[in-house]
Every structure is written in C-alpha cells, then in structure tokens.
Write a structure and sequence with these properties.
Blueprint (H helix, E strand, L loop, with lengths): L1 E8 L3 E4 L1 H11 L4 E7 L4 E7 L3 H14 L16 H10 L3 E7 L2 E2 L5 E7 L5 E10 L1
Antiparallel strand pairs: 1-8, 2-7, 3-5, 3-8, 4-7, 5-6
C-alpha cells in the first residue's frame, strides 16, 4: 500500500502522524512488514519522539532553535526569509525518512513513542508525507 498524507501546519513545532499511520497500517492488512514514511520537503523533517508529555516537544524545539538560530549573518540563502536557511539545516540534522516495523498488524512503537512531522518554518504550510506499507 502506498499513499500520501497531507499535514497542515501552523508554524514551527511537532505534528503527530501516528493516528493516521496506525489507520493506514490497519487498512493495509499487513501482519508483518515495514512502514516507510518520507517527507517531500527540505524545510521540515520526520522524527520518532515522546508523545506523552508535551514539554518534551517544547524542549526539543527550543533546543534546536538555540542550535540553529535565525538571522545568522553567515547565511547566504536568505531570499525566502530569515527562517528558511535554518529550516534547511534543521532538516539536514534530523530525518527525512523513517522505517517502522509492523508486527501483529501494528506499528512496533514503544509505549511513549509517536511519529511526528517536524515543521521548521515559522509560517503555516501544507506538507506532504509519502508512505509505503508492505511485507
């Protein structure tokens, strides 16, 4: 099974994809296999992260913003705004694809793990995540 999930973001942050992917895996009928997801953008990324305590998402975002600040005078790619080059760097430092095993008709995630799209731009966007579910 292949397809795409559209995610509307309203600025920087982590947007959980787990429920949509759980539904896709269930609909696929695959008992044992792999769910691969890929984001088709260069200024957002994908991560597996804690989904229980919202402060974990907040702390991750704050840490990455300190690591890759906006407005660095060394950036030359500035035509799309002060958050664009930092968004590209953040995407390069994280992941653009993930592979999650499927066992017993379910994603093999830990108790507190969720799959997230990580929006690195300040403005809202519609992001596309491609997925492949197979055995």
């Amino acid at each position: 099974m292949v397809g795409q999930i559209k995610v509307r973001t309203d600025g920087q942050g982590l947007y959980e994809l787990t429920p949509e992917l759980v539904e896709k895996v269930s609909a696929s009928g695959i008992a044992e296999g792999l769910c691969t997801v890929f984001i088709t953008h260069t200024s957002a990324s994908l991560v597996v992260q804690e989904n229980a305590d919202p402060s974990a998402k907040f702390d991750l975002e704050a840490w990455l913003n300190r690591l890759v600040p906006e407005g660095d005078v060394l950036y030359t790619h500035i035509l799309e705004g002060p958050d664009d080059m930092p968004a590209h760097i953040k995407s390069a430092l994280t992941s653009t694809s993930l592979s999650i095993p499927i066992m017993n008709h379910a994603l093999t995630l830990g108790t507190w793990q969720g799959i997230y799209l990580w929006e690195h731009r300040q403005s809202g966007n519609t992001r596309t995540v491609a997925f492949h579910i197979g055995d």
